[in-house]
Amino acid sequence: MRTRITELLGVRYPIVQGGMMWVGLAELAAAVSNAGAFGILTALTQPSPQALRDEIGRCRSLTDQPFGVNLTMLPSINPPPYEEYLDVILSSKVAAIETAGKVPPEFFAKAKAAGVPIIHKCVSVRHAISAERMGADAISIDGFECAGHPGEDDVGGLVLIPAAARRLSTPVIASGGIADGRGMAGALALGAEGVNMGTRFCATQEAPIHHNIKQALVSATERDTRLIFRTLHNTARVLKNAISVEVVETEKRGCEFEDIRHLVAGQRGRAALQAGDPDGGIVAAGQVVGLIDDVPTCGELIQRMVNECRSRLGAAQGYFA
After folding, report:
1. Which of 14, 90, 299, 316 has the greatest count of CB atoms below 10 A from its CB?
2. Rounded to the nearest 10 degrees, what angle do helices 125-134 and 105-114 cross at?
């Protein structure tokens, strides 16, 4: 396949693995890249900038293909040393940096000066336009279906993707609600030049999470996610489980963040992913769980997607007499 995204990233297929907290490790990113797509490490999964440098080195030992690093900047009581992480990413000369959140303009300028392409992930057209003005080389646009933080506008991908493609000159990567070649074909038809998948890559053999969590994703339907932090104006879409249901019920009664902190703590979620307890903590997941039926290798998933995408686009073309 050939789009501006494949050319920007130097990959065979315009499929990008999402940068996922606790999941974006070398074994997954390398497997995605080895299969012809674009794997991404998650910077803040690593406890320090030096640990990130080591993880980048570990990924390079597992693949000779291009991969990138995600750096997400969200409000935090004790913010990590973002610029130190950025410096490690840029000095390591990865193929691209994926940014998200409120990124200072000087960070964009640093990346541009270092010659590292920037993919900025956002959830609205207005933020996408701002990122393009600051120098982003591609925009990854997240529809309301996505896992993690979909923003507060509640706009689904069927509207958001073409809205972004109409307004931007930089290439668009569609994110949220994509798990197969049908979704990929749809995204390309809507004006995107690539797709980003997070939840779907969690349900692969190489994903560094417990098999029980992968099976929970396979068993879930499109109705089995919950939106937490709505009342705190920091909405997050997660898998329906005992913890997320309790958080939603607590929010309905009225609460402050401190009232639910013990339920949503990141380390608790990390422990659940590793121990295989689907009810042990918050598990990020998009509505796309309703389209996940198996746990293939990354290579099998990507090739299947590409073949199905080609087939669906060909079938759509056949509708014209």
Report:
1. 14
2. 50
